[in-house]
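# nightly structure sweep
# worker-07 picked up a monomer target from the shared queue
# config: single-sequence mode, recycle default, output format = structure tokens
# input follows
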Amino acid sequence: MIIREINIEEIDKAVNVLNHVPEFDSLFYSVAIREKLKGKETIILLAEYAGKPVACKIAYNRFFDGSIYSWLGGVLPPYRNQCIAKGLLDELEALAQKRFFTSIRFKTRNRHVGMLQFALKNGFMITGFEGREPKTESRIMLEKSFKKALYA
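# output follows
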């Protein structure tokens, strides 16, 4: 398994992964994603197995408050439970810290129990809630602050 950062020119590879993640309700389009990310500081990660893209993570500077917003990501079903999501999170955190971000933020739907469990297990804290009907469509906001480095 290789996890690497890609640039916006390779976004089609990530979009192909996203369009095969069953939890997403609609298709994603490279043109729309390029437009949304235009002019924003981004981190785009791609996980590949035997040269085939199997997972991705797209994050960008949305709030300009020191956080990076983890916008889209997913792992193809046959490759789940192999620590790929954890690898993507670790790489995102490392790159974000190198670029002077102080936290990672994201939101997910109440129905994505596996994502909520993953987030809580990996140090994210619930920071907000947007109620919707049905309740499964409510949004839960989460954030993970990075540990402060001690300098001698």
